[in-house]
Amino acid sequence: MKSARGAVILVRHGEPALSRRMRLTARAYREWWATYEIGGLKAGQTPPAPLVAAAAEADAVFCSTRLRSIESARAITRGRAFEPDALFVEAPLPPPDAPDWLRLPPRWWGVVARLWWWLFDHNEGQESRREAERRADVAAGRLEARVARGETVMVIAHGFFNLMIGRALQARGWRRTLDQGFRYWCARRFEPPARPVRADAGADRMATAP
After folding, report:
1. Which of residues 200 and 100 earns the better pLDDT score?
2. Residue 2, in any domain of the structure
3. What whole-number distance in Å separates Cα of residue 73 and Cα of residue 52?
4. Which end of the chain is more exposed for a tag (fewer CB within 10 A), N or C?
5. In sequence order, which residues have a C-beta less than 8 Å from that of residue 17 and are 6 or more positions away?
6. In a domain, 69, yes or no
C-alpha cells in the first residue's frame, strides 16, 4: 500500500463486543447506541496481515477517540505510536421516533437512523449532516496537507465518517485506488491527483540548460 507520492488509507475498526442479536424499539436503540459508543472490541480478533503491514509502512497513524477505534489501532500498529483525534469520531445515529410495537435489530435501526439523518437532518440536537460534512472536509484538508509532504497516512476510525472523508477527498480530485467495502478491518485507499505539467516546462529547462 506504499506510494511514492503519499496516500491516505481509511480503515474501519474491528468488530465491537456489544451484541447485535436482538430486536429493539427506537427508544431502546438510543440506549444501545450510547453503550456501543463507549464500548471496545470483541475479544480474540486479529487484523488482516496486509493491514498490519500497511500500518508499519505508513508515516503516521491516527484513530478516533472512541474505544473501539483505539483498540483497533493498538492491534494494527503492534506497539507503534498512533494519535487519537476526536476529529475522526463517527457521525451520530439518533433513530426517528417510532411506536414501541416496531422492533428491529440494531443493524436495521442503524440503516433507518442514518437515512433519517442524511435525508431529513434528524439529529436530535447532535451534529447535523452539514456540520459533519464540514468536519469531514476539515479532516480531508489535514490529511491532504500531510500527504503533500510525501507522507502516507492511515486513519483507523468508523464506517460512515470514513466514507464522508473519502467523499471530501474525491471532491478535491483524489482517486480511490483500493476499496474493500464496509466490513470490519476493511480499508479504502486514496491517492492525490497528479500534478499538472506546465506547457512551458520544457522551454524553461532549455533556457536554463548549460
Report:
1. 100
2. no
3. 10
4. C
5. 39, 40, 41, 42, 43
6. yes
Coil vs helix vs strand at 178:
strand
Q: What's the rounded Cα separation, in Å, for the pair 198 and 101? A: 65
pLDDT-derived band at 199, boundaries 50, 70, 90: very low
Query: Quick check: 208 pLDDT over 70?
Result: no
Sheet strands (E) in 55-96: 60-63, 83-84
pLDDT, tens digit, for every residue of 91-111?
A: 999 999 999 999 999 999 999
CATH of the domain at 75: 3.40.50
Residue 166 phi/psi, 5-degree rounding, is -60, -40
Query: Alpha-carbon Rg of the chain, whole angstroms?
Result: 20
CA pair distance 64, 40, nearest whole angstrom: 13
Report the percent of the chain where pLDDT is more than 90: 89
Domain of residue 13: give its range: 7-208
pLDDT of 62 > 60? The answer is yes
Residue positions counted in the chain: 210
Q: What is the DSSP letter of 10?
A: E
**Number of domains the chain contains:** 1
